[in-house]
Amino acid sequence: MLKGNILTTDGWINGSVRFENGRVTALEGHIADPLANDAPYILPGFIDLHVHGGGGRDIMEGGDAADTVARQHAQHGTTSLLATTMTAPRDELMAVVAGLCEQARHRAAGGARMLGVHLEGPYINPGKLGAQPDAATVAVRDEVLKYLDLAPIRVVTIAPEISGHLDIISELAARGVRVQLGHSLGTYDDAVNALKHGARGFTHLFNAMSPLHHRDPGMVGAALAHAEYAELIPDLLHVHPGAIRAAIRAIPRLYVVTDSTSAAGMPDGEYRLGSQHVTKCMGGVRLADGTLAGSTLTMDQALRNLVSLGIPLADVSNRLSRFPADYLGLEDRGRIARGAWADLVVLDREHALTATYVEGESIVEYA
């Protein structure tokens, strides 16, 4: 049982939440303004749909790397995540995805639940790689379906302007996969057409996509005008606070991701991002040419960053938990409700993490 200011699906209550066998069994309390007392905050656990690594390990390594990554992020309040791949040659990527299927069948003790895989590439525009390796390819139906057979692919990032990709978007959407637009030189019209074909979101909004101009609104303009969902990296390096505010006003269910690399939770130095070598320095991760290459962000720091911009805690929590759960169609995660998984985080009054529970397991207790 935990006591404090609990953010429920109906708003804040001051009271207690009980859980047993991994599920919430009872919620008791009264409606209360959390700013009117000094009790801790109890929020749904964070859901990160874009995770490349952490704790010195990279998802593309295969083996037990995903377990290390899941444990690292659980230390920062992430209770479930999508293991996110990098663009790579077909055989290499197939092998990594096949290995992740086994990882998704179990949850490593002390780690976040892996909900499946986010395939970021290889179906991207080679002219907008960002930090992706130069191995982009055009999507072919049989190959795409092979990936779906190998592992639970929940999200695919794709550049819609490439010939044949609209049909692939339709196919994936029909199979329940969430298609995101990103690493793209596509126009506003390309993005709108992709949304009509079943695309649902945008990958790391503003980054690695055609920008907004008032006479050429690009992918960003399409997202701001039409998207219900989009992911954004609020490390305050990838996106200016003013752009974050604009996106929050425009996109109803904008949600937070870390796009974290193996450098997350590690000291400054050299790390791996897929086949690339990256350097962590001054809070960021970059390629040798200075290109931002993922992040070192953790979800608890993302929460504090957004709160520091004046965004109410309940709104921030939705963007770290409820909206990503809704995006994947998960009704028993991302919220504190009877019958939901007991994925919980506890914060002190300064929004520092003091406890994390994944499916009822206490991950860490902070002093």
UniProtKB/TrEMBL annotation:
Cofactor(s) needed for function: a divalent metal cation
Catalytic site positions: D259
Cofactor comment: Binds 1 divalent metal cation per subunit.
Residues that coordinate or bind Zn(2+): E120, H183, H204
Keyword Protease: no
Keyword annotations of the record: Carbohydrate metabolism, Hydrolase, Metal-binding
UniProt domain Amidohydrolase-related: residue ranges: 41-351
Gene Ontology biological process terms, A to Z: N-acetylglucosamine catabolic process
Gene Ontology molecular-function annotations: metal ion binding; N-acetylglucosamine-6-phosphate deacetylase activity
Superkingdom as given in the UniProt entry: Bacteria
Keyword presence, Calcium: no
Residues binding substrate: A131, N207, A208, R215, H238, L292, A293, G294
UniProt record similarity statement: Belongs to the metallo-dependent hydrolases superfamily. NagA family.
Record-given protein name: N-acetylglucosamine 6-phosphate deacetylase
Annotated organism of origin: Caballeronia glebae
